Amino acid sequence: MNQIANDKIPPTATLNPDESWKCTAMDLTVICIIITAGFLIRISFFTGLAMGDDVIYAAQVLSLAHGSNPTLEQTHWTTRAGMTFLPSAILKTTGNIQFSFVAIPLFFSTLKIAVAIIGGNILLGRKYGILSGIIMAIIPLEIIYATHFFPDIPVSCLSSLSLLFWIHALKTDSRLSFLLAGLCFGIGYLFRETILLDGPVYIALLVTSGRIIRPKILIATIAPLTILVIESVLFNFYHGDPLYRIDSILHQQENPANLTLISTSTAGGGFITDPLLMLLLSHEFSIFMTASLVLAFFSIRNLKTAPFAIWLIFGFIWQYYGTTVPTDWVPLQRDPRYSAGLTIPAAFILSYHISNIRIPFLRYSIITVLCTSGLVCASFDNGGSALAAHREFLSKEPPGPVASEPYEFVALLWLDNSVNPPPGVSPGTELGRNSILRSVTEIKSVTATAPSSGDFILISPSRRPRLYKDLQAKGWIETESYQEHVPAGRLLAGKLLRQLPGQQQRAVDAMTPKRLVLMKRRATSNEKEQSSGK
């Protein structure tokens, strides 16, 4: 009865020192086991290069690490210091491309398991931390993106740490917690500026804390402002513009191609329904996000879970319906990975409600279902199959000099695990992707080639359909085709989607392997005559 009464204390209450968690030797052993298991699960679902935005980051990192005169391209991707300078420093140290690109997200994803355990024990209570860590270890979104060279996991970990310190600071009025909340926020900004979308969550937590006027809150601004000033000084030194990154972000968000991408449905619905369909149908969410969001509405009036319910509800709404720029209403693309910053509160809410189920059989059955669904849904992803076509290409000797589309050239470097291009292959100068081309040609061992001066071009019709058609119109023909392998789990996911209304295109995309083709320039009449004359 006392526990129930304590749960209903107004949110202005402070943490009870008698309930403070002290880590014992047994606790430490269990924590290490869960973290190790989570780490091994992530390695077993290794992706590496997913042929998305990670290629842009990879090209810039290679340029910074091995370029003769590297410069930052003015795109919102390459001005994220956490995704460019830090990986390039690791690459210079280890020399291993594949490890360098996934070391950071893998570290932060594993760290999130520890954060879930320790944060759950401190902010919820001793019996909730372990289950929070187990849930964090098997959420598919976390497993999948732990070995993607994307900023989602690093920024989500730092965002979660910042909000956890913020919650603790609002309860205890601790100067140190306010300072650490700001520090984690500032570092997270260096990985991706979308951490700014957490703004409504900070405000909602402050408003519901019972006391809005708090002079100590200003302490939380020290680190972010310091980081912003240092970043501006560096950009001014290298590019003559202190607002270089901000200009790059605004340019991207106003780009017509980006606006078209944002307005395109990713889940078979519309502006309102797409995020809801993702909750029901995304393998990256499985049942975790839907269940936690439903439970969040029942957790708002509970002292222990209210901050995490507010975090989850406000975070989800603004992440998918809020704007990314103040001058217009430009939301993020509807992609589950942008919810990576919500997995900590989701784990806390699930852990709290499951742990309080009084029937042991039911409690352990639910945990078993969660663990099973997490691993099964993680298998629905592409994994390392995105590079299967590139592996096949590298396994054969090219018939002659090959000009590779720059995007695909980065994948070849990644697979070769070196900055030396495969024999006979170089990035093409007339195939677009100029920002990537400029980055890779900064590498001392790489020289670009004009496709018009050679006989072969390597391109993916799936990723560059317009360029592929243009080349065909100019007389280039396919001579070799290399195909991705669709994993069994993803094939099953496609078949299941095919049975649902409005999901036909997603089903086709899931089951259709992307191709990589080698194209040969068709000989002209003069060339044929010269050849026959010889």
UniProtKB/TrEMBL annotation:
Return any one Pfam family short name. PMT_2
**Name of this protein:** Glycosyltransferase RgtA/B/C/D-like domain-containing protein
Matching InterPro entries: RgtA/B/C-like
Keywords linked to the UniProt accession: Membrane, Transmembrane, Transmembrane helix
Which superkingdom, per the lineage? Bacteria
For this UniProt entry, which segments traverse the membrane? 28-50, 99-122, 128-146, 176-205, 217-238, 276-298, 305-321, 336-354
Q: Glycosyltransferase RgtA/B/C/D-like domain location, by residue? A: 90-229
